[in-house]
Backbone:
């Protein structure tokens, strides 16, 4: 937009100069008229006076013009300065505008980066779910280990004819205890046909317990979690049936004073150790399925593993799973959450591989012990220790 | 948009003073008209003299005014020139400013572009806590290898010496000594003296001071499989004693000395070594499991076994003794950007490979043991040829 110079506003009083000039002309015309009247003296006098007056007017007008020019110059100078100021202000404004644009660009860039990164940190429901389940599974460790330890202690005591084990006096007592327990807990009248004198009632409260102790798949392997204390006890009795129903008679007291007795004790302990290894594998399977008694509604370690793998919830009452699968939830999540899910699932897989590693160790120990027994039996020389003459 | 100024560069004075100047010129013409010579019929000479004087005076005034007017125009022209120059200067200054501003804008745009690119790339290089944790755990697992191998080697050496009735093995003189040694050890370390009537009067059999050690040697789950860290000398001894109980509590009597001069003795020695070899296969599998759980003999506090390090690698948590605690790595990964999580996936896959190698190792053990078992079965089911020990001497 061009800027216009405002010259229409009179800073210089030129109008007064014009008026003075007109007055001078009119007076000169008057002088001419008088001269025509033929009165030389007054005319000359008047003419001189008029000339002086006109000269003064002219000088006055000249001064006014000069003053007007000075004022005009001043105006022009101010005008020029104003233009310079305006230009400077405009440049400053443009610079500050440029700075502002830069700041805005920076803010936009930072904001965009933040917005892009923000979605990386949106919590993933699936990952939270997996991690929660991993922690729940971890929490079963205490109950799992405690159950296994309790079973090992009880069964070791049973093998050692310990007090309260039901085998304190040896094999016969252990067999009697076993029969009594069968009668009370698992007897099946349809197949047993026990005489009335021996008092062998069937488990009326839960018919499903009939012969459960002799069905290891039903008692041990099928359940994800034992639904009752009776079911857990049935699993423990099934372990006994599978391993050592009746331990040998005890070796204790004075027999240990002699070498024969000490030999027998050590070899007996060897057998108990090997039996404990075999039994421990089965006890571990029981412990994996035992509910956590310390927590209301506590689930077994195996149940929490299944929940961890599927993302669903296990219902002990119906022995079934329900709820949304994690893979369905994962379908609705953004990319980083999906990557996190893969990472969490890999962590779960590692836990499962570790369980396989544990099982592998158990298999290794069983195989190793079985091999050791075979090597002992297949030795080419050397009589059995227990059969050797004492005092080598 | 360029800023223009309507100031004319040509004839500035005429334009500036257009209206008033025109009036002035008309007035001057009028003056010139009336200042013409007076009529001759009225006192011509005197009038002419006065007129001439008046005219001279007026002319002088007019000249003076013209000079003032000219000076004014000159100054006015100077002012216009300065204005024009100032306008040029302003334009130049503004152009310079525009140039500088353009440079600054370019610099700003460049800085913003670079900053934007850096901001976008920076997240790709944010160190991942999870990956650092996994990598550290992997290194910690690897660092247990020397101790793991040393424990295994030490156990294998001790047990082989025991099978061979080596000096200091407690079985130098054969089966009976081995069993006597074991009984004494049991009495001192593991005997359950709480069973009524177990220990007769006259037998020194104190049992362990720590109740947790009662019968620990005969419970392989408690002494070997259950612990993540076998970290005390007593626990290590219990694990070693359990291995003995599971495999060979009493090695046969030694075959050595003059009997090796005869064929029977030599044959018996070879067959004995065959048995020891087979027993070593079985025993080594168990020794390996113990070594996996054994901490370094002179380890600093907080050192862990190879198995405990594996647990740390899998969970991201910390193992102390047999207790696992701390934040799981899966929780930490939930707060990390995508690239870090992709890295974590890669690191976890590396961990899985490590565990699969362990599984492969176990499979090696199984295959070896199965092969030896098959060899024993084959020997036992041979159709012909009597056993070596029963053969007539000097074939």
Residues:
């Amino acid at each position: 937009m061009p800027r216009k110079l405002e010259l229409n506003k009179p800073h210089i009083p030129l109008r007064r100069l014009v008026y003075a000039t007109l007055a001078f002309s009119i007076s000169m015309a008057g002088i001419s008229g008088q001269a025509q009247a033929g009165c030389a003296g007054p005319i000359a006098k008047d003419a001189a006076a008029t000339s002086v007056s006109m000269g003064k007017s002219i000088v006055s007008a000249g001064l006014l013009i000069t003053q007007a020019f000075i004022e005009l110059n001043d105006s022009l100078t101010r005008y020029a300065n104003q233009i310079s100021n305006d230009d400077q202000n405009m440049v400053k404004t443009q610079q500050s505008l440029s700075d502002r644009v830069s700041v805005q660009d920076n803010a936009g860039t930072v904001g965009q980066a933040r917005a892009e990164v923000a979605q990386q940190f949106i919590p993933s429901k699936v990952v939270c779910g997996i991690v929660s389940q991993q922690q729940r599974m971890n929490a079963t460790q205490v109950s799992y280990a405690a159950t296994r330890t309790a079973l090992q202690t009880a069964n070791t005591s049973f093998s050692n004819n310990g007090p309260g084990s039901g085998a304190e006096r040896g094999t016969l007592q252990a067999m009697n205890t076993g029969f009594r327990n069968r009668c009370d807990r698992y007897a099946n009248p349809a197949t047993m046909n026990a005489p009335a004198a021996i008092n062998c009632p069937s488990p009326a409260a839960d018919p499903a317990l009939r012969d459960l102790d002799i069905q290891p798949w039903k008692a041990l392997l099928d359940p994800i979690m034992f639904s009752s204390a009776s079911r857990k006890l049935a699993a423990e009795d099934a372990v006994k049936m599978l391993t050592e129903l009746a331990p040998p008679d005890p070796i204790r007291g004075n027999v240990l004073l002699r070498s024969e007795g000490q030999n027998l004790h050590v070899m007996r302990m060897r057998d108990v150790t090997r039996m404990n290894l075999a039994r421990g594998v089965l006890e571990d399977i029981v412990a994996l399925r035992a509910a956590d008694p310390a927590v209301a509604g506590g689930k077994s370690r195996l149940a929490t593993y299944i929940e961890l793998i599927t993302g669903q919830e296990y219902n002990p009452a119906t022995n079934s799973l329900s709820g949304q699968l994690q893979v369905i939830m994962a379908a609705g999540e953004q990319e980083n959450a999906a990557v996190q899910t893969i990472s969490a699932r890999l962590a779960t897989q590692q836990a499962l591989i570790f369980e396989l590693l544990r099982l592998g160790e158990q298999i290794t120990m069983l195989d190793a012990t079985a091999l050791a027994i075979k090597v002992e039996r297949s030795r080419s020389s050397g009589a059995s220790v227990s059969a050797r003459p004492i005092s080598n | 948009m360029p800023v223009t100024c309507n100031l004319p560069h040509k004839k500035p004075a005429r334009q500036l003073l257009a209206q008033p100047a025109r009036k002035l010129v008309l007035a001057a013409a009028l003056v010139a008209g009336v200042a013409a010579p007076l009529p001759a019929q009225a006192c011509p000479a005197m009038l002419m003299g006065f007129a001439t004087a008046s005219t001279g005076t007026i002319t002088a005034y007019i000249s003076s005014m013209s000079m003032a007017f000219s000076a004014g125009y000159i100054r006015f022209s100077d002012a216009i020139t300065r204005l024009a120059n100032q306008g040029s200067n302003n334009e130049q200054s503004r152009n310079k400013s525009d140039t500088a501003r353009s440079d600054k804008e370019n610099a700003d745009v460049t800085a913003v572009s670079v900053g934007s690119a850096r901001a976008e790339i920076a997240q790709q290089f944010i160190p991942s806590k999870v990956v650092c944790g996994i990598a550290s755990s992997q290194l910690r697992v690897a660092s247990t290898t020397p101790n793991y191998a040393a424990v295994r080697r030490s156990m294998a050496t001790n047990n082989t010496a025991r099978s061979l009735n080596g000096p200091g093995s407690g079985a130098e003189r054969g089966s009976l000594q081995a069993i006597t040694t074991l009984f004494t050890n049991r009495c001192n370390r593991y005997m359950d003296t709480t069973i009524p009537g177990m220990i007769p009067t006259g037998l020194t059999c104190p049992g362990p001071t720590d109740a947790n050690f009662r019968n620990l040697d005969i419970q392989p789950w408690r002494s070997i499989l259950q612990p993540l860290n076998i970290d005390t000398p007593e626990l290590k001894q219990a694990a070693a004693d359990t291995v003995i109980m599971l495999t060979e509590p009493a090695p046969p009597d030694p075959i050595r000395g003059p009997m090796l001069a005869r064929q029977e003795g030599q044959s018996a020695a070879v067959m004995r070594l065959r048995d020891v070899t087979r027993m070593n296969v079985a025993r080594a599998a168990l020794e390996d499991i113990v070594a996996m759980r054994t901490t370094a003999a002179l380890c600093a506090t907080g050192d862990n076994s190879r198995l405990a390090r594996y647990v740390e690698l899998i969970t991201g948590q910390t193992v102390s003794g047999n207790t696992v605690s701390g934040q799981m790595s899966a929780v930490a990964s939930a707060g990390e950007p995508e690239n870090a999580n992709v890295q974590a996936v890669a690191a976890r896959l590396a961990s899985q490979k490590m565990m699969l190698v362990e599984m492969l190792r176990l499979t090696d053990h199984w295959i070896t043991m199965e092969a030896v078992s098959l060899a024993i079965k084959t020997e036992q089911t041979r159709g012909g040829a009597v056993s070596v020990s029963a053969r007539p001497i000097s074939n």
